[in-house]
Write a structure and sequence with these properties.
CATH class of the largest domain: Alpha Beta
Strand content: 5-15%
CATH superfamily of the largest domain: Thiamin diphosphate (ThDP)-binding fold, Pyr/PP domains
Mean pLDDT: 93
Oligomer: single chain
GO cellular component, one term: cytosol
Catalytic activity: D-glyceraldehyde 3-phosphate + pyruvate + H(+) = 1-deoxy-D-xylulose 5-phosphate + CO2
Shape: globular
EC number: 2.2.1.7
Strand order of the largest sheet: 7-6-8-9-11-10-15
InterPro entries: Dxylulose-5-P_synthase (IPR005477), THDP-binding (IPR029061), Transketo_C/PFOR_II (IPR009014), Transketolase-like_Pyr-bd (IPR005475), Transketolase_BS (IPR020826), Transketolase_C (IPR033248), Transketolase_CS (IPR049557)
Bound molecules: thiamine diphosphate, 1-deoxy-D-xylulose-5-phosphate, magnesium ion
Pathway: Metabolic intermediate biosynthesis; 1-deoxy-D-xylulose 5-phosphate biosynthesis; 1-deoxy-D-xylulose 5-phosphate from D-glyceraldehyde 3-phosphate and pyruvate: step 1/1
Number of strands: 17
CATH topology of the largest domain: Rossmann fold
Distance between the termini: 79 Å
Helix content: 40-55%
Low-confidence stretches: 635-640
């Protein structure tokens, strides 16, 4: 009889004998692999923590005890043993269960996550609140070695060591971020100490032991082996210095060891860090072999691990075009350097890293540092390109404002995943960048209508003397051919793609292609639309926008960004500033709520920003305008 279908919650799990747990672990892995093979998802991270998940739920008393999963991309086993087995096949689907912990989904999900390194801060807040309000419950934060590279995690450790509240931090160390983990901390944890560090340590230890008088003998034993010297430098030192009790390293797939240790740790007072060594992708050979490819993966054949091929070959992705264009430009310009915060593959920088390793920097999950590091590079004459997902740049807003834009440093932000990303859902949609960046002085913001324009925009950005953000969507391009000769676009100038007098559709970025499609459909109905490719959200092409508005009296704006403060707002500001009264404006974009997960096409349809939604909005506006004669009453006035 299978065990997993009968686990409705941790109480059922606790009723199993320890001998049954490895069988349950195998069933969980099977369900995760079979499901993710169909839905796509974060396979390798979840496979790596199956035993850890079982041990945590076996020992702790969730939901009274709070178990927090950092990033949350490894929480599939947690979902399966906390009452979501029956719905697990809907993972990451529209209307289905989330790929990340979500408070609205289950009382066992105590923190909504998706962005990394928040777990220790939130856990410290929770344990402090429990303490102050006299409530029972232990708080556990499970954080990966990659996520531990973020400043936020260290801010929390520092504060936790000071507050000395009861808190368990589990460091899930698999020596991987999405790609192999980087940085001095990673080397320290894995004890790959540099020769220099080991030598210095040896010298200092020798001098100390000899001076102490009693150390001669100890020293003679130690010096026989470099390894034993290195073993004195334990990862524990770091955490003990931060006032944590350090336990480990533990073999992360050995259930008895995990359960016994957690049982002991559960009642310790003060902050404790349990260091657990796991294998990313554990139990599925293709994922063990290529944990980076299986970190987050689309549908695949579970028998082989090979990706399921789309029925029709898709055009290259925006990321691929960014990748090849940047490398091409960097080959000719030694000032160009590339920076990623732990996303070399996702942002398309792997090719750059291979070709120009000394000009490539993976700084770890440290977006804030990435941006200020870029500012420093720019101040000394280099042309840094920070390739970052729109959603993760949110974390580095102050650095964009204070370190880059205040003094107008020529840093290029290659903002991938601008707009709706699909199945990762609300934590990952690049919904806000046009809004939050538009407020920043000195920054130029552009968004290409297709992958060919992306090439020209990157070229333009790298030839601009100040900071520039180029934002482009997740996924395939439009399928246009690529110009070989790259040209600098005039900054702040859009283009008219089609002329008509009934309505103007002013679109930016991924909104342009469906706007053109909508215009075709409108023409078939006898409605002639002007279509403007704005290209720049800042500075906006005010002449072009006002001319289109004046001519038609009706403007539909299209963007894949929050309407609040976004591109449509920029158009409204422009019309108001130019004193263009009487123009009817309908803004299409993301509403003032977090957009849920789902395929990009589904979400765009639902939100009315696909071709049909734009057509319908333009048609309605044109009809409205005809009824009221709005265009005739326009009185354009140039301001200033
Ligand atoms: C702020 C932020 N930047 C980047 C990411 C993208 N990201 C998701 S998981 C991950 C690696 C996490 O590594 P680790 O914590 O060691 O977990 P593992 O996948 O190894 O289990 C990265 C970089 C993110 N989620 N949040
Ligand atoms: C968990 C996380 O933040 C990343 O793994 C993210 O899911 C990657 O998204 P892409 O699939 O768009 O690269
Ligand atoms: Mg890791």
């Amino acid at each position: 009889m299978e065990l997993l279908p009968h686990i409705q919650g941790p109480d059922d799990l606790k009723r199993l004998s320890r001998e049954d747990l490895p069988r349950l672990a195998a069933e969980i892995r099977k369900v995760i692999i079979e499901t993710v093979a169909k839905t796509g998802g974060h396979l390798a991270p979840s496979l790596g923590v199956v035993e850890l998940t079982l041990a945590l739920h076996y020992v702790f008393e969730a939901p009274k005890d709070r178990i927090i999963w950092d990033v949350g991309h490894q929480a599939y086993a947690h979902k399966l043993v906390t009452g979501r087995y029956d719905r697990f096949h809907t993972l990451r689907q529209h209307g289905g269960i989330s790929g990340f912990p979500k408070r609205s989904e289950s009382p066992y999900d105590v923190l909504d996550t998706g962005h990394s390194s928040t777990s220790i801060s939130a856990a410290l807040g929770m344990t402090t609140a429990l303490d102050l309000s006299g409530q029972e419950g232990r708080v556990v934060a499970v954080i990966g070695d990659g996520s531990m590279t973020a400043g936020l995690a260290f801010e929390a450790l520092n504060n936790a060591g000071h507050l000395r509240k009861d808190l368990v931090v589990i460091l899930n160390d698999n020596e991987m971020s999405i790609s192999p983990n980087v940085g001095a901390l990673s080397s320290f944890l894995s004890r790959k100490l540099t020769g220099r560090l080991a030598t210095r340590f040896k010298r200092e230890m020798e001098s100390f032991l000899k001076k102490s008088g009693v150390g001669e003998q100890i020293w003679s034993v130690l010096k026989r082996s470099e390894d034993s010297l290195k073993s004195l430098l334990t990862p524990g030192m770091l955490f003990e210095a931060l006032q944590f009790e350090y336990v480990g390293p533990l073999p992360g797939h050995h259930l008895d060891t995990l359960i016994d240790t957690l049982d002991n740790v559960r009642n310790l007072e003060g902050p404790v860090l349990v260091h657990v060594l796991t294998k990313k992708g554990k139990g599925y050979p293709p994922a063990e072999k290529e944990p980076d490819r299986f970190h987050g993966i689309g549908p695949f054949d579970p028998a082989t691990g090979e990706p399921r091929r789309p029925e029709r070959p898709a055009p290259p992705t925006y990321t691929q075009i960014f990748s090849q264009t940047l490398l091409r430009l960097a080959m000719d310009d030694p000032r160009i350097v590339a920076i990623t915060a732990a996303m070399p593959a996702g942002t398309g920088l792997s090719a750059f890293a291979d070709a120009l390793p000394h000009r490539f920097f993976d700084v770890g999950i440290a977006e804030q540092h990435a941006v200020t590091f870029a500012a420093g590079l720019a101040m000394e004459g280099l042309r840094p390109v920070v390739a970052v997902y729109s959603t993760f740049l949110q974390r580095a807003y102050d650095q964009v404002v204070h370190d880059v834009c205040l003094t107008g440093q020529p840093v290029v932000f290659a903002l991938d995943r601008g707009g709706l990303v699909g199945d990762d859902g609300p934590t990952h949609h690049g919904a806000f960048d046009l809004s939050f960046l538009r407020a920043v002085p000195n920054l130029v913001i552009m968004a290409p209508k297709d992958e060919n324009e992306l090439q020209h925009m990157l070229y333009t950005a790298l030839n601009h003397p100040g900071p520039v953000a180029v934002r482009y969507p997740r996924g395939a391009g439009v399928g246009v051919s690529l110009d070989w000769r790259l040209e600098a676009l005039p900054v702040g100038r859009g283009e008219v793609l089609r002329e008509g007098n009934d309505v103007a559709i002013v679109a930016i970025g991924s909104g342009v292609a469906p706007a053109l499609e909508a215009a075709e459909a409108l023409a078939a109905e006898g409605i002639e639309a002007t279509v403007v490719n704005a290209r720049f959200a800042k500075p906006i092409d005010a002449d072009l926008v006002t001319e289109a508005a004046r001519r038609t009296g009706r403007v539909v704006t299209v963007e894949e960004n929050a309407l609040a403060g976004g591109f449509g707002t920029a158009v409204l500001e422009c019309l108001a500033d130019r004193g263009l009264t009487g123009v009817r404006v309908r803004r299409l974009g993301l509403p003032d709520r977090f957009v849920e997960q789902g395929a990009q096409a589904t979400l765009r349809r639902e939100l009315g920003i696909d071709a049909e939604g734009i057509r319908a909005a333009a048609e309605a506006l044109a009809a409205e305008g005809r009824r009221t004669g709005a265009a005739a009453r326009l009185r354009p006035v140039r301001s200033g």
